[in-house]
């Protein structure tokens, strides 16, 4: 896939997530947003807080990656084995549950609606700016360290896809939690 098509798809998906969170999460009460649909399941706010924790790491990494212009316009976006596996793991269509790192797990937290939503919206807007900047960079360059093992690196395009897919996965999970909470 060409970089232009790839980035445009990620932008559309990210804009849709932002629209959905503003439309469906913002009007909800703090109680509904904090209600877990089942014991051991995350509430809608816990889903967003999990994403906030990942974005605190990956957004600065991606900002550094897209800062170096080196666009190769006719080179297809490629994926390494690690990149493919990482993106498959967080794909919203992958319904398998996964264990997260303890520091990324906000389970059983009473979270502040305004704080979590404000940070999430700000980070999602920052991600959209990074996607805009990525049009001028080489998406196949290995520049982004993996959060849990920083010696491993993802290509810039892989890291962007990973982050967008991860956001989509957990926003959908949060929607299911809200549906169970009755908003």
Automatic annotation (TrEMBL):
Lineage top rank: taxon: Bacteria
Pfam families documented for this protein: DinB_2 (PF12867)
Domain DinB-like: 27-173
Gene3D superfamilies the UniProt entry points to: dinb family like domain
The protein's name in its UniProt record: DinB family protein
Source organism of the structure: Hymenobacter perfusus
